[in-house]
Amino acid sequence: MNEPTSSSSTSNDRTKKKSESSKCFYAFRTGLPDNSEIQGNHDLLTAYGLGPVERAFNGTRRVKEKMSAFLPHVIGELHLDATKEASSLRALIEKPPIHKEISNLSSSAMQGFKLSAGPVDERYRHLFERKQEVDVLAYSEKSNMIRIKPPYDPYGRNDLLKPWSFRLSTDPVRSLTAHVLLSPSMTGMSETSGSFQYTTVPHFLTNCGDSLLDSPLAKKKRMGSRKFAENVPDVSTDDVEKSENWNNSYELLSWMRNDEIGSDAVMEGPFGPRKVVYCDYTASARSFSSIEKYIQSEVLPFYGNTHSSVTVTAEQTTLFMHEAKQEIRAMSGCGDQDSVIFTGSGSTCAVELLVHLLQSEAGNEDVVVIHSIQEHHSNLLPWRKLAKEMRSVEELESGHVDLDNLKAVLKEVRENHGDIKIIGAFCACSNLTGVLIDVQSVTKILKSCNAISIWDYASAAPYIPITFNGETPLDALFFSGHKLPGGVSSPGVLIVKKYLIQATKPKRIGGGTVFFVNDSDEWFLKEVEHREEGGTADAVGAVRLAMAVKMKRAVGEETIKQLEETISRRVFKSFNKTNNLVLLGPSTVEGRLPVLSFLIRSPNSNLFFHHNYISVLLNDLFGIQTRAGCMCAGPYAQKLLGVDEELSREFVNAIQESPDLDRTHLRRQAEYSQQEFLRPGFTRISFPYFFTMQQVDDIVSAVEFVAEHASDFLHLYQVNTETGEWHHQNQRVFHGRRWLGYIQFTPSGLKTKAKIVPDVTDMNTCLRLAQTLALEASQSINLSKIPDGRVAVNEKFQRLRWFVLPIEIAEQRAGRNSQLQGTVFIPRKYSDVPVKQIPEILGKLDEIPKPSENDAKEESTCQVICDDVVCLLKCDDQSTKAGATENVGVDESEAEDVKQMEDWNKRVIVKRIENLRKEEERKQEWQIPPLEMYKKVTDVIHQLKMIRNGDKVLVCLSGGKDSLSLLHILRHYQQRCNKARSTSFQLGAITVDPGSAEFNPRPLIEYCRKLNIDYFYEEQDIIGAAMKTPGLRSICAFCSRMKRGRLAAAAQFHGWNVLAMGQHLDDLAESFFIAAFQNGNLSTMKAQYTTKDNQLRVIRPLIMVREKALRNFAEEKKLPVVAENCPACFNQATERHRIKQLLAQQELIFPDLFNSLRSALKPLLLVVSAHTSEMRTQAVQNIVNSS
């Protein structure tokens, strides 16, 4: 690193007068290694990911990525020299000083804390004179102190993590000892002369696995920026990904709390104004200011009706709709064979549409629907209309689906109904308990019996990953956009495999669904995504949903998971200590969202407090918004409460409206019953993941207070027996109501009645005030003024009253020995020890009867595979702009062009394990290709001598169907060669991840590990580099060029001499026409060629194979195809797509079209030169020779 230039003489004169005792320092965020691990500055900094430094780092990392949260993890001593490194305070942070020495104070590196530093160069003292703060570091000249602002703590311990201050003093050897100035409340400290020094690790760093020491950031692997040719350790990619997500998201959570619309809303209640605390995200999420501002400034000004593309408003709105769907595809991993449909108002419309799509016009197919006991009404009632039989699957004590019971139900259905269609409808998460279901385990069992796997992600989608095409692909799923934070008033989403769709007419006939209409007939669109989105599209809602999805992905699903688990653990620990608070559902904390349903039992009785009363009391005392009732999951709610079928019918008879009531002339707007308040229910509370732990603790304290003091306030509230609502006696009218009727439109604009927002107190003050109110309320009970609500209950329904009334509490307080009746139901008690699923279940699927062979073949297409048509996956196939030359080969010159991207900061190497046992080899998931396809590939290999003795063949594995199929074909060819003792070669694979959030090939790492092959995975921010490149005409071309250079460089570096690419005959034909139409030349991809330096050979063994053959193979063998979602081109009609359609149309007229094209393209395929000047000469000569 170059030494910084000198300051002016004036600056030097000024700074020389300052004391030389002032110092600066830099520290690590992870534990310190042994001295043996340190081999110079480069290795040290690389190990800790603290680049850039010197020549080893060409890219820069974000300041927050280097500095955030490092102090809680530094326990040790270091020495550094900062005299040559800081040309500014920001440079000090972004470019770490060279470390001279580093050592641990103990083997565990968990006791003591020292920082030592050399003096700051006097030329830079002026940078520290004004207590400047950059990110987390600030220096105070006056107090000779360096102050570190703590990182944002996503667990909400900001009250514990006070700013860290270091008082610096010079010792005889010019090193500095820093004492930690922290609050005495932090255990593990001892006071020493006005400062505090570590004696043990503070409890908040090690408590219950929640600590920052356990965070992904603290555990981040030593993956610094590296030169391409450096050795790279084989590390777990999960930790790297988690740490980055964490690092990018924990500050975003603070922004979300401030940006949430309504976070500062104030309500007027009977006990005074209260700040609204929204804890009902499971029902509906809230809006965010930034999202709404974007919609107002960018979407609405160009809003227009879709169904047109010739005006700027219509086209922009259509593009917004399309892009919104791409965000959904990226989040869920959808492919070309999956339909994504916006469905109006949430999951309810999605299920209704799905039922329609699964039925043909005849509608006479018998269906058996299997579901869990946890289903929402939306995923239960629509299937009752369709199904010949409904079967439910029980749950375990852990709240998960009983896989044994599921297997038994499937077996029984197959025995009783033979080859009948079976639909499995399950929720990914219970909206009552928050327990997450093992989607893959359930789906595997369903697929083993050729059952359709349908999933309700309504409660799960905002918080957990959605993998539609995972190891075992799902057939359909749906969720509600309005449940995602920021997704208010957005449509529902249905994702379904196209092969399942039988309906050819839209469910709702209208604009946008019709292809053509005349006086006597109509023709509907064939594309289901257009046909089933009739009418004017909710474009604004779709954009809002897309932004909510982007926000979820920005926070990071792994971060959300950890926050949800931490909140759940914290809330359960507190609630379980509250004696009269009855939690419904399993007691397990792991694998669930912080969604809790509960009842509060009245003291000295078996009765409960009414759920609506508990909800309104939380609202009035603390402003906490909860939900009361059965939450639209009636059957499961009744099982949680302990209400059986017989008792359920008794409740129905008590609360249903009389059939003799004349609803028409009485103009009834709602169901009417004098006994509605008997309806059983409970209170549900849900905690958003972006709440701080302080907020969570305050809410928990409020619930605990209500559980303890509910009886003190009960006499102040009155119940409406016809609605079940409870209201404070002084607030029967909604005083804080907002009225549309107050709105007036005037020449000066919209006017409404002004609202005065009163000052409100914080939650702690509310809690203290509530204590006073409870005391006052308990002393104000006047038995004579409390109506006897018992007489309001019909005599024949008296036994059904399960809640306590104010008169009964008053009689108890008055000392009367009134005998309270017992409760009519007892909530189900789950075991305290969670029951885990039995792994052997998945290995016993052979016991389930299989349907007929023909049916099995039909169902084998359940896994729909994506095509390799998106530029990120096959950029070397993609067309460029008109007039540009289409590069379709790998050239070592391109490796030179990618030197700017030498930042190989993410690389995973999977090494093949030699000498596996035969049992282990048989477990590998290698697939045998069809004989016809295999013969076409081997004929090409032999004719052109593509693979030779001693070759090391590296398959370019994008994750698409073509490259995955090629890998399995070459593996089969290798085994046949080994058996015949003919050609001997090595086989491996490589993936270059271009760094797009919409494309995640990481599952290939574990897949190749299971296949036991040599595999190289490289991640580069190619898309980010493309965005920063000025004047770039085509991202596709740039991506293609950079990936080819990476592949060539990696192959040569690792010692592999052959690159095998997966382009097929369709690709070659399309490239030929693109080159002819766009570039005016006759060329296509070459079957094989050698690079200019003769170091690398590139082969394309699939050039005689049709794309549909590869698709069928991938689908039949259920290869783990990576979903394709390219942000550069999306799914718009690119040139390649237009050519594909053109050829498909011609193939209908000339079925032998591609055989003719194969013969016509042969002279061009046989060009073997990598030099452009030689290609045309060879092509002409080949044409002459073949004629």
UniProtKB/TrEMBL annotation:
Residues 1-12 have a biased composition (Polar residues). Keywords: Nucleus, Transcription, Transcription regulation. Residues 1-20 are annotated as: Disordered. Residues 277-640 form the Aminotransferase class V domain. It is found in: Nucleus. Residues 952-1123 form the tRNA(Ile)-lysidine/2-thiocytidine synthase N-terminal domain. This is Uncharacterized protein.
